[in-house]
From TrEMBL:
UniProt keyword annotations, A-Z: NADP, Oxidoreductase
Record organism: Lucifera butyrica
InterPro entries per record: dTDP_dehydrorham_reduct, NAD(P)-bd_dom_sf, RmlD-like-bd
Signal peptide: none
Family of this protein: Belongs to the dTDP-4-dehydrorhamnose reductase family.
Identification of the protein by name: dTDP-4-dehydrorhamnose reductase
Keyword NADP attached: yes
GO biological process: dTDP-rhamnose biosynthetic process
Pathway: Carbohydrate biosynthesis; dTDP-L-rhamnose biosynthesis
Keyword check for NADP: yes
Short name of any one Pfam family annotated for the protein: RmlD_sub_bind
GO cellular component, one term: cytosol
Single GO molecular function: dTDP-4-dehydrorhamnose reductase activity
Residue ranges constituting the RmlD-like substrate binding domain according to the UniProt record: 1-277
Amino acid sequence: MKILITGANGQLGRELTKRLQGTDFLPTDVAEMDITDQNATRKVIESYRPGVVIHGAAYTNVDGAEANPDLAYKINAVGTQNVAVACLNCGAKMVYISTDYVFDGTLGRAYNDFDQPNPQSVYGKSKYAGETLAKHILNRLFIVRTSWLYGDGNNFVRTMLKLGQERDEIKVVNDQHGCPTSTKDLAEVILKLIDTESYGTYHAANTGVTTWYDFARKIFELSGNTRVKVLPQTTEELNRPAPRPMYSPFENRMLRLAIGHTVRPWEEALKEYILEFRK
């Protein structure tokens, strides 16, 4: 099965590219295909004629989206619409990567795949708009929501490891709860899904719940850094432009029910990541 990836230079795109070596796949990023250009998107996708398009390209600057809403919607909503139309025209399945930011974080328990989204930030609203547009266009669609992603690229884990070498103290938010997710585990979910006809919305995160503060502490524990002191702070103290979901862990219910797949605990995935990173 031929697979086309958008956002191939992102963390997930890099992991998928590694896993698909030796197969018939086409990695694309903005240089190869600008998803905001409908004609260019249609030309690239329809000329390659993939069986699946894994759509990971997105505007992910959460705070930047508040200042640039048109850009966020152009990429996350209109760009997704363009990809979906091209998939429809060539009969391809589509995987749309979405986010925990489609929820408001006030439910008080882990969100399952059937809970009603209520995004509060421009980023979350633009990603949910992408979900909605794709669903209106395609039947052969997997919406895969994930959270707190880390892999090959700039991410929270690498930032903490770097700061831990530079500082004696680091302040980290302690009132936002969620699920750190390894690109390895997310890529595994996606590659399992595309071999099925079980279309729909899926939550895909490593299991368990933590805060950014406890996540940072675990990073330093696993990396053997006992020198740096991690101090808690509140979201209000951090004073970022975009609202964050305060409690947005995922229950991966549909993965379990539809394809019998479970995702490992976040601590186990993090340990593997840090060991590989240090090598």
